[in-house]
Amino acid sequence: MWDHGLLRRQSDDVSDEIDEIFFIYMMLNPVSSKELMDVFLDWEPRVSLPMTDNVILAATCRNIQALQTLLERSDFRVPPTFSERLKEVTFSYGCGRTEGLGLIATKRPDDFPIDSDLFEKFVEELDFETLKSLIQVRASDVRVTETVLEKAAKNQNSGRIFRLLWPRRESGIVITESMLRYALANRHAEDIVSFMQENIKSDMNFSEETIDTLLSASEAGVTCLKLLQCLSTHGFSLSERLTETICCHKDAMDMLTLLVNKEGYNVPITEGIISSAASNKSQGPAVLKFLAKLHQKSLPVTDGYTKKLFK
Predict the structure, then answer these.
(1) How far apart are CA 231 and CA 229, in angstroms?
(2) Angle CA(149)–CA(150)–CA(151) in degrees, nearest 5?
(3) Distance (Å, rounded) from C-alpha 266 to C-alpha 260?
(4) Which of 126, 207, 225, 275 is the most exposed place for a label (fewest CB within 10 A)?
C-alpha cells in the first residue's frame, strides 16, 4: 500500500509521511494497532510518522500496547500544542485515556506539563504501578493537596494509592471526614482505612449525621464500625437512627454482632428499625430474627404498619 502511494496524504504525494487520518484509524484499531505500529516503526527513518495532537489523542484511546511500543521505540516529541488540545476533551475521556496520558507524562516528562486537574485525574484513575512510576519521574512537578488525597481515597484500582501519596502531602494536611467517607466507600476500604487509622487525629468528633453518612456510604461495614468506635472520643453512642442505617446495610449481621458483643444493645426496637431490617434484600430475614432475639418478645409491628410493609 505504501509503495502504491495509498498511505500518503494524496496518492500522487511524494511525501515520506504517512497520512494522519490513516494513522489515527490505525491507532484506534482494537486488534491490530500494536502489530501495525511495529511495522511502521520498522520503516523508519524511510517513512515519517505524523505525530500530531490528534494522533496522540487517538493513541491514548484504545490499545495502550501500541502507545507503549511507540514510546519505547520512537523518540518523537509531544507537540507543544497538545496540552491545550487536551483541555478540549477533558470531560469526555475515561480511564483508558487516562492510562495512556499517564504513560506519556512518564516517558516524555520534558514535553508534557501536568496541571493540577490532570494530576487529580491520574490519582483517581491510574493503577498503583503506573502512578508510582509517574510520581518517581515527575515528583517535582506535582503537589499533593487535600483534594489530591481525596481522589486517592476514591481510587478503586488499589488500596495503596493513599499510602503512596500521604508522605508527599503538603504541610499541615490531616485526614478529613471527606477522605474517610471516600475511603469507606472504596472496595479496598479495609486497606485504606487501616493506614488512615495509624495517621488520623485521635480527637476527631463525629456528629450523629456524619456517623450515619459514613455508615451508609461504607463498602465495609465492620471496618467502618471499628474505626468509629476507635475514634469516638466520648464512646460510640448507638441511636435509633444509626440502628436503622446498620439494619439495612449489606453487612448488617456482622455489624450488629460486633456492637452487641462489644458494647451491648440498649436501643428500643421500633417500627422504623424493623422497616430498615425488612428492606435489607440480602440479610433481611436474618436481621429480623436477630432483633427478635434481642427484644426477647414479639417485635413491635402494628396492623397498620404490616399493611404498609406489604403494599
Answers:
(1) 6
(2) 90
(3) 9
(4) 207
Q: Which three cell numbers, joined as nine digits, stand for 121? A: 485525574
Reduce the DSSP state of residue 26 to 3 states and report it: helix
Whether 27 contacts 51, CB under 8 Å:
no
Q: What is the DSSP string of 80-144?
A: TTHHHHHHTTTTT--HHHHHHHHHHHHH-TTT----HHHHHHHHHHS-HHHHHHHHHHHGGG--B
Distance from C-alpha of 238 to C-alpha of 212, rounded to nearest angstrom: 10
Contact yes or no for 274/310 (Cβ under 8 A): no
**CA 178 vs CA 116, 123, 150, 222: distances in Å:** 19, 16, 7, 19
pLDDT single digits (tens) 139-193: 999 999 999 999 999 999 999 999 999 999 999 999 998 999 999 999 999 999 9
Cα-based angle 239, 244, 250 (whole degrees, multiple of 5)? 130
Alpha helices in the chain (DSSP H): 20-28, 33-43, 53-59, 64-73, 82-87, 95-107, 116-125, 128-138, 146-154, 161-165, 177-184, 189-199, 208-217, 221-231, 240-247, 252-263, 271-278, 284-295, 303-309
Residue 308 has pLDDT above 50, yes or no: no
What pTM was computed for the model? 0.82
